[in-house]
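Researcher: Here's the sequence for the chain we discussed earlier.
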Amino acid sequence: MTEFASGAGRIGVITFPGTLDDVDAARAVRLAGAEAVPLWHADADLKGVDAIVVPGGFSYGDYMRAGAIASFAPVMQSVIDAARSGTPVLGICNGFQILCEAGLLPGALTRNVGLHFVCRDQWLRVENTDSAWTSRFEPGAEILVPLKSGEGRYVAGEAVLDELTAENRIAFSYAGDNPNGSMRSIAGITSADGRVVGLMPHPEHAVEALTGPSDDGLGLFYSVLDAVLAKA
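Model: Thanks. This is the structure I predict for it:
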């Protein structure tokens, strides 16, 4: 994949109380060649970033529902406004839950089938390559990234599922088995404009072949830098 010069874009990474993967997300941003800009949950200022990552973890201890409290944090209203104005936003694991709770993506993430926490390397199939975060992949490509969640089962009404399918808004699906019982094996989805993507597995943990399980996750961060530079 084509690499970018350091500082090719500024990508904000949000930290909530209980966030675990903000450091990893910032590292992935830097490895892709962008500047990682820390954003604080209680601060509505997005610092003029070009894109935003809502990382994984257990924001606010997953009280009520995973992502529910975080969706009301001051920073999230700014994220909602920015997303609706075209700023690319990526939600990973708990970030995916937050984006659904905030209404930026449809559906919800519920307890895994069997009620077990799933932690393993997972193959995903790339279903949509037209979004701001997936353009570097080939349609149908399979990528290997870690999955670690207890509430990763994607659910939505049949009408929503049909709409996501008809509009090619399923970004990633689980290849092979379905580890958490997600409806239609959905691992990630996009907004109608393709600027907002949420997925349950962790691309930020698959950015170096040495530490593994692959460097496939970098494709998401390269993709958004393509989108950012095309807009500049």
